[in-house]
Amino acid sequence: MWNKIILILGFILITACQPSLFTKSAPTKVSAIEGTKAERIKAVTKLLVAQEPLPSPLQDAYFLEEQIGDNKLGPSDYVAFGMLEVKPNVLPAWRSKLLPLKVRPNYVTPKTPKDWWVSAADYSSLELFKLRPYTQRLHGWIGIDAKTNKIYIYTFTT
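The structure corresponding to this sequence follows.
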């Protein structure tokens, strides 16, 4: 009898975490840092320095976060995309704090494409690094494009 009860409870718990067959999934919610160039730089800098002082001032910055899920029962995952532009002579200082990734993840882009995000063609030439120390998230990467002096940040939760 206990085996049947445990099986039923297990089934209920497993199915509770799955999207319902009868309802639509929650739409993606988007939060972005917007404003003038100076306002974006200030806001993104504040976001990043909460983890670690930046090796140099930013020349430009963008940030976008998409929430997937309804933040109730079930998934409420986040994906975030950022772009930092710095002066060419400071790229070595940024690299010096980062550890290279061993495996290149697949290319990703925001659901609504942004002109500031790295293109699929340029993604293959990025130098990819682990996220620490610039974010506390565990999943994702930091990519440096030495040709454009841009640093891309992609993070996600699971």
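The helical segments are 2-16, 37-49, 91-96, 120-123.
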